[in-house]
Amino acid sequence: MKIVILVKSGPCTDEADRALQTAADMLAQGHSVSLYLLQEAVRFCGPHTKCSNCMELRELIEKNLEVRILISDAKLRGIDEPSTEHQILLGSYESLIDLMESCDQVIGIL
User: Which of 16, 31, 65, 77 has the most CB atoms around it within 10 Å of its CB?
Assistant: First the structure.
């Protein structure tokens, strides 16, 4: 199953914890999972963000979690490019809609 998880809460929140745990569980079950970072969640990619969830995100990326960042939200928060230590794909509203239409399930952890 192809699943996309939408996250808008910052990296050090209960919602981010829940999103990463959901992604980890779905990956463990063999699903293809994309995490789409919106609004404050784009701070996962900031150069100075340090919290346990950032480490967990890196581990999930190594387990084939696809992560996309809404570039317009990142730019509004002063993040011109995602941190190079992450493998993050840049996205737009159009790519978000395309991804949602191509997935079997969309989960919003907002």
Answer: 16
Which burial class, exposed, middle or buried, applies to 22 when counting CB atoms under 10 A from its CB (0-12, 13-18, 19+)? middle
Which range of residues forms the domain containing residue 48? Answer: 2-109
Q: Which tokens belong to 4? A: 């996309």
Strand arrangement of the beta sheet that strand 88-91 belongs to: 88-91, 66-70, 32-37, 2-7, 105-109
Pick the more confident residue, 110 or 1.
1
pTM of the model: 0.89
Residue of 39, 47, 99, 97 whose CA lies nearest to 71:
39
Degrees to nearest 5, angle at CA 11 with 7 and 12: 125
Q: Residue 86 phi/psi, 5° resolution? A: -100, 155
